[in-house]
Design goal:
The protein has about 190 residues and is of the alpha+beta class. It folds into two domains: about 100 residues, Topoisomerase I, Chain A, domain 4; about 70 residues, 2-Layer Sandwich (Gyrase A, domain 2). It contains five helices and six strands. A hairpin with a 3-residue loop joins strand 3 and strand 4. Helix 1 runs antiparallel to helix 4 and helix 4 packs antiparallel against helix 5. The model has no long low-confidence stretch (mean pLDDT about 90).
Length: about 190
């Protein structure tokens, strides 16, 4: 593997991590559609331990706006209901034995606008990170070229490949934003 290929691999990994983090952050933003991601990491205090809902039961979606949590231990029901309500996610929790149904209320116009602004702000932060990482990578290439570690041709090809990686990452960010905005509008 040449030095320029190594730089490109590292650069791709950095941008992939940035877009992956954005995808994860978007999953936690409340939309008009329920998702198991909304509740699976809520921490529940039970049996003198801190456990997540995912560790206490199985999660599923009941259309149109309900998350069903089937708990493996009926003694955990009250603690899970309290934890869901304490998380302030806009969910109304009701229990039926070992099954909890968390119903998502529709978003109001004002809240939808707030969420849209938050999504755009988060996406712009990632775009800034991408530009910063691109600038750092280009500087590394220039330094490699100046130190005679890379030929001019290798550096030129690497810059073109890195720009394609940047374009792909920016496209991924746009796709994530469009998907989340569509989800907000439902």
């Amino acid at each position: 593997m040449t030095l320029s290929e190594q730089y490109i691999k590292e650069f791709e990994a950095e941008l992939s991590a940035a877009t992956g983090k954005l995808r994860q952050d978007f999953a936690e933003i409340r939309g008009n559609r329920p998702s198991p991601d909304m509740v699976q990491n809520i921490v529940v205090s039970i049996y003198d331990q801190q456990l997540t809902i995912r560790e206490l039961g199985a999660l599923s979606i009941l259309p149109p706006r309900t998350i069903q949590i089937t708990l493996w231990d009926k003694d955990a029901v009250t603690a899970v209901v309290k934890a869901i309500e304490a998380a302030h996610l806009g969910l109304t929790a009701s229990n039926d034995g070992t099954i909890i149904r968390a119903t998502l209320s529709p978003l109001g116009d004002e809240r939808r606008e707030e969420q849209a602004k938050l999504i755009k702000k988060m996406a712009e932060t990632v775009r800034i990170q991408i530009r910063g990482k691109r600038d750092d990578a280009m500087k590394r290439l220039r330094d490699g070229e100046n130190n005679k570690e890379l030929t001019k041709d290798d550096a030129f090809r690497a810059k073109e490949k890195m720009q394609k990686v940047v374009d792909k990452a920016n496209g991924d960010v746009e796709d994530l934003v469009e998907g989340k905005m569509t989800e907000l509008g439902e």
